[in-house]
């Protein structure tokens, strides 16, 4: 029985250029498309997620351009505007925010951080990328060729009985991509349970791992509900079976319950991995142990559990029972507490640290500020009296963009900059990195802060045309969006350039603590020359500093 | 260009209460945001790499600090929740003297009809100082009736009635929006709410071309749809009489198909009247056979509202409890004297309601 040596064959590692690590084991396209190396799959995800992010971002730019003036002008008809914001919502939510951090950074780092050679199921990992691409390209085709005008929320009975756009095709794409999430999450859960290096106990796991563990649980428990909901929408639309449309004996609120039962936890799917990223960056650049490690890990799990119990706060004006509303309102306040713990502890971690302001840290500090504003404005939406007024207005739009863009995207970019040297073996320009972090922060606030005011003024969301008194704030928002776009374009340019002319990175360019920094940059195909043995908890910078001093003493003979 | 408002007009009794909660929340949020920003920047600068700040006595966790910042936000949150819930209760409990106006949403317009008969589209005229309760439904998809100046919003659903009440405090014209995305012309589905002096409002009502009151029109429909054949006073078939039903307690069979399944009491509201016409077999009055045919798909929403207005006009008047709230219908408001209501079904072994 003879067989070709495969890309993941350990023998190939020795033949390849050690400086290029896993990147150098084989350069053929086939070796990328058939790889089972979690690091290469992470890069496949990075490329495809960036592609979909640009696609969704272009749609957002068109939406903002339309909203420069009260009357419709950029688009010829409201239908085109409605299709464009649907593209923006669907692609950003399902193809960028949800997979973003886990599929790129999680995929790359999870085995490295726990001292494993790969994920538990490398082939399933590759399969999940193919499913993601299938779902993504299919949805893209449906949304561009046909168009869908329901918004990413697909509210019934509009989506099932009234819209004459490609609802089923788009829903099918989202249905498909859900399986990609589920497979990745299963892979993470099994890997974290079974493949930790010797000595890597649960309470020694970096918070990045805890965050991905909590996220994976939500994905596995929540995503099937979305799949069921999509099937029910398709059944009603095709066979005219009354499920959601009262004209056929259905109940439109049933859809909202099912949809938000997934889609609210989905918010935590988007943000929890970012919490993990920020915990890694803040500790590395403050050179301190995270303050209150066990509370940080506990808060992640608390958010994952409570996140399943607050979906009804999307439905205070939907005519759901006011008693249900009360329960959802109070639980929404409670979910703010573990989120608050995170921010308190990040702040406390800076105390008596040794803080340096490199690009990843600038993104992380930006994250803390924007997430705080996003979280606190969430209280206005959990409070029933105020939610009635601002529900479905730009206040909600501003709030969730502060969490999603101010939170998740800032953390994603921060993490990408933090682990870029590890992923590619190259350093990017620190000047351009810092400039992009600053530009994104300023552009973001200019774009979305005016929308809080717009929302309280009463401007409803998803409006193609709006009353004139809202124009000044809308112009401000659009102007900010152009700055934000510049901020996002910069990394798209200087990061690829760094691959060619960037300084070669050593194994640990930030002097950070963690197993991923003990192996080469970029890591060899099988991550570690020898499986590490873990003897202590995470973020032990004190220990690292002492060890460095001792080594210096020994090497230089200074007494 | 720079003369633009940053805070919405306030024109209802509800608005200042919502604003107070909002400002309270903003103060709490600003306090937290600014103190986080201060400490993050202060620590980051003071303990920047290379600074000579004192770094002795570092703690990895501090149970007291953690207990404080779990307890304080929790208590603060509960306080804000209670405040917001109390204001919300007022929003869902219309006062007894509120005037009912009927609203139908459809792609893409708002149609309103006043009890006196006046109809309007994308406009709503109301007298200042008078509590107004809107009984709303949709002919197609979900819409949402939103008046920012009053700080009130309520989704309007097909197949059911939802209600919204407000008491305008200032004469003027205020924007009316549809807040729930409803298709192509969603952003154009809106208009104006005009708050008028009561005398002007009377004049406006009289100036309308439609002078037949809704209840009167409903009475005609009551005959036209042959409701009076069974429910009318001279009927040979015995159906539950409708006089005094609205606003009063109604004994329903627990299992509509089983006369011996026991009785539960509900409060007859608009929801009950509508459902009894469209799906009579779902809720059967104790002591009657479920003989009434369904009128599903036969009565347009506008006629339905007139029928409801008529049956309300011969009823007992509305309770002040929210009628949209399906979560509280069962057994709520049960009367003390069951036999009194049981007397309603005098014709035992009778016919449809």
UniProtKB/TrEMBL annotation, chain A:
It is an enzyme of class 7 (translocase). Gene3D superfamilies: Cytochrome c oxidase-like, subunit I domain. It catalyses: 4 Fe(II)-[cytochrome c] + O2 + 8 H(+)(in) = 4 Fe(III)-[cytochrome c] + 2 H2O + 4 H(+)(out). One of its GO terms (cellular component) is plasma membrane. Pathway: Energy metabolism; oxidative phosphorylation. Keywords: Cell membrane, Copper, Electron transport, Heme, Iron, Membrane, Metal-binding, Oxidoreductase, Respiratory chain, Translocase, Transmembrane, Transmembrane helix, Transport. Residues 32-535 form the Cytochrome oxidase subunit I profile domain. The keyword Ligase does not apply. The keyword Endoplasmic reticulum does not apply. It comes from the Bacteria. GO terms for biological process: electron transport coupled proton transport; oxidative phosphorylation; respiratory electron transport chain. It is a multi-pass membrane protein. Its EC number is 7.1.1.9. It is found in: Cell membrane; Membrane. InterPro entries: Cyt_c_oxase-like_su1_dom, Cyt_c_oxase-like_su1_sf, Cyt_C_Oxase_1, Cyt_c_Oxase_su1_BS, Cyt_c_oxidase_su1_bac. It holds the Pfam family COX1. Its main location: membrane. One of its GO terms (molecular function) is oxidoreductase activity. The chain crosses the membrane at residues 42-65, 85-114, 126-148, 168-190, 210-235, 255-278, 290-311, 323-341, 362-382, 394-419, 431-453, 473-495. Belongs to the heme-copper respiratory oxidase family. NCBIfam families: CtaD_CoxA. Cytochrome c oxidase is the component of the respiratory chain that catalyzes the reduction of oxygen to water. Subunits 1-3 form the functional core of the enzyme complex. CO I is the catalytic subunit of the enzyme. Electrons originating in cytochrome c are transferred via the copper A center of subunit 2 and heme A of subunit 1 to the bimetallic center formed by heme A3 and copper B. This is Cytochrome c oxidase subunit 1. The lineage of its organism: Bacteria, Pseudomonadati, Planctomycetota, Planctomycetia, Isosphaerales. The gene is ctaD.
From TrEMBL, chain B:
It is found in: Membrane. Residues 96-207 form the Cytochrome oxidase subunit II copper A binding domain. GO terms for molecular function: copper ion binding; cytochrome-c oxidase activity; heme binding; oxidoreductase activity. Pfam families: COX2, Cytochrom_C. The keyword Transferase does not apply. It is a multi-pass membrane protein. Its EC number is 7.1.1.9. Its main location: membrane. Gene3D superfamilies: 1.10.287.90, Cupredoxins - blue copper proteins. Signal peptide: none annotated. Residues 213-315 form the Cytochrome c domain. Keywords: Copper, Electron transport, Heme, Iron, Membrane, Metal-binding, Oxidoreductase, Respiratory chain, Translocase, Transmembrane, Transmembrane helix, Transport. Residues 344-353 have a biased composition (Gly residues). GO terms for biological process: ATP synthesis coupled electron transport. The chain crosses the membrane at residues 20-45, 66-89. Residues 318-353 are annotated as: Disordered. InterPro entries: CcO_II (IPR045187), CcO_II-like_C (IPR002429), Copper_CuA (IPR001505), Cupredoxin (IPR008972), Cyt_c-like_dom (IPR009056), Cyt_c-like_dom_sf (IPR036909), Cyt_c_oxidase_su2 (IPR014222), Cyt_c_oxidase_su2_TM_sf (IPR036257). It is an enzyme of class 7 (translocase). GO terms for cellular component: membrane. The keyword Endoplasmic reticulum does not apply. NCBIfam families: CoxB. Belongs to the cytochrome c oxidase subunit 2 family. Subunits I and II form the functional core of the enzyme complex. Electrons originating in cytochrome c are transferred via heme a and Cu(A) to the binuclear center formed by heme a3 and Cu(B). This is cytochrome-c oxidase. It comes from Tautonia sociabilis.
């Amino acid at each position: 029985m003879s067989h070709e040596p495969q890309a993941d064959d350990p023998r190939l590692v020795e033949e390849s250029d050690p400086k290029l690590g896993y990147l150098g084991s084989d350069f053929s396209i086939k070796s990328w498309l058939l790889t089972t190396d979690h690091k290469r799959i992470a890069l496949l995800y990075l490329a495809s997620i960036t592609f979909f992010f640009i696609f969704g971002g272009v749609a957002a730019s068109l939406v903002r351009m339309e909203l420069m003036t009260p009357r419709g002008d950029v688009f010829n008809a409201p239908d085109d505007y409605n299709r464009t914001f649907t593209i923006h919502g669907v692609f950003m939510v399902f193809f960028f925010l949800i997979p973003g951090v886990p599929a790129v950074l999680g995929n790359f780092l999870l085995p490295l951080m726990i001292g494993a050679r790969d994920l538990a199921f490398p082939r399933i990992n590759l399969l999940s990328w193919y499913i993601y691409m299938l779902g993504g390209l299919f949805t893209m085709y449906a949304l561009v060729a046909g168009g869908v005008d329901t918004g990413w929320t697909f509210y019934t009975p509009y989506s099932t009985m009234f819209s004459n756009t490609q609802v089923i095709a788009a829903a099918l794409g989202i249905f498909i991509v859900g399986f990609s999430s589920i497979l990745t999450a299963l892979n993470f859960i099994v890997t974290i349970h079974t493949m930790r290096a010797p000595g890597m106990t649960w309470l020694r796991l970096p918070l990045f791992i805890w965050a991905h563990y909590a996220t994976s649980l939500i994905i596995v428990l929540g995503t099937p509900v979305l799949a069921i909901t999509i099937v029910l929408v398709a059944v009603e639309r095709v066979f005219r079976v009354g499920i959601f449309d009262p004209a056929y004996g259905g109940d439109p609120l049933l859809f909202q319950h099912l949809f938000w039962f997934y889609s609210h936890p989905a918010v935590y799917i988007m943000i929890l991995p970012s919490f993990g990223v920020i915990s890694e960056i803040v500790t590395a650049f403050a050179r301190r142990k995270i303050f209150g490690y066990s509370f940080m890990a506990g808060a992640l799990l608390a958010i994952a559990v409570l996140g399943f119990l607050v979906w009804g706060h999307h439905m205070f004006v939907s005519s759901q029972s006011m008693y249900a509303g009360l329960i959802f309102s109070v639980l929404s306040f409670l979910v703010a507490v573990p989120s608050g713990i995170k921010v308190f502890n990040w702040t406390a971690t800076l105390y008596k640290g040794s803080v340096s302001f490199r690009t990843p840290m600038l993104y992380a500090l930006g994250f803390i500020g924007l997430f705080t504003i996003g979280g606190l404005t969430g209280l206005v939406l959990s409070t029933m009296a105020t939610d009635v007024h601002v529900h479905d207005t730009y206040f909600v739009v501003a709030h969730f963009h502060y969490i999603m863009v101010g939170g998740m995207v800032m953390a994603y970019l921060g993490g990408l900059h933090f682990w870029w040297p590890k992923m590619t073996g190259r350093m990017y320009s620190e000047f351009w990195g810092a400039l992009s972090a600053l530009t994104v922060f300023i552009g973001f606030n200019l774009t979305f802060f005016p929308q809080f005011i717009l929302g309280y003024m009463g401007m409803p969301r998803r409006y193609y045309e709006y009353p004139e008194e809202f124009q000044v704030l809308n112009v401000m928002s659009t102007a900010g969006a152009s700055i934000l776009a510049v901020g996002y374009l910069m990394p798209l340019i200087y990061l690829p350039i760094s691959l060619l002319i960037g300084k070669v990175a050593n194994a640990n360019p930030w002097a950070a603590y963690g197993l991923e920094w003990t192996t080469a940059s970029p890591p060899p195909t099988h991550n570690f020359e020898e499986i590490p043995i873990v003897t202590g908890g995470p973020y032990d910078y004190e220990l690292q500093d002492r060890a460095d001093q001792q080594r210096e003493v020994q090497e230089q003979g200074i007494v | 260009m720079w003369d633009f408002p940053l805070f919405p007009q306030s024109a209802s009794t509800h608005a200042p209460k919502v604003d107070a909660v909002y400002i309270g929340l903003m103060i709490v949020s600003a306090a937290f945001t600014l103190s986080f920003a201060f400490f993050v920047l202060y620590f980051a600068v003071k303990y920047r790499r290379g600074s000579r700040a004192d770094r002795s006595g570092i703690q990895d966790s501090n149970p007291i600090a953690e207990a404080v910042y779990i307890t304080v936000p929790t208590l603060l949150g509960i306080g804000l929740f209670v405040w917001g819930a109390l204001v919300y209760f007022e929003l869902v409990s219309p006062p007894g003297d509120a005037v009912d106006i009927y609203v139908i949403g459809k792609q893409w317009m708002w149609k309103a009809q006043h009890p006196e008969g006046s109809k309007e589209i994308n406009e709503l005229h109301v007298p200042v100082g008078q509590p107004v309760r809107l009984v709303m439904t949709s002919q197609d998809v979900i819409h949402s009736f939103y008046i920012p100046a009053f700080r009130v919003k309520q989704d309007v659903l097909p197949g059911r009635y939802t209600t919204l009440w407000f008491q305008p405090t200032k004469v003027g014209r205020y924007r009316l929006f549809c807040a729930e995305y409803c298709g192509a012309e969603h952003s154009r589905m809106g208009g104006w709410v005009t708050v008028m002096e009561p005398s002007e409002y009377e004049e406006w009502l009289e100036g309308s071309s439609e002078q037949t009151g809704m209840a009167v029109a409903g009475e005609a429909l009551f005959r036209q749809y042959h409701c009076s054949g069974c429910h009318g006073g001279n009927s040979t078939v015995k159906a539950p009489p409708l006089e005094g039903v609205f606003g009063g307690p109604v004994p329903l069979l627990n299992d509509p198909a089983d006369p011996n399944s026991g009785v539960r009491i509900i409060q007859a509201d608009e929801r009950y009247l509508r459902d009894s016409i469209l799906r009579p077999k779902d809720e059967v009055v104790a002591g009657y056979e479920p003989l009434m045919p369904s009128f599903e798909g036969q009565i347009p929403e506008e006629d339905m509202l007139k029928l409801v207005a008529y049956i309300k006009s011969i009823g007992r008047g509305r309770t002040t409890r929210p009628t949209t709230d399906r979560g509280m219908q069962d057994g709520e408001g049960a009367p003390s004297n069951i036999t009194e209501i049981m007397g309603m079904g005098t014709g035992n072994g009778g016919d449809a309601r």
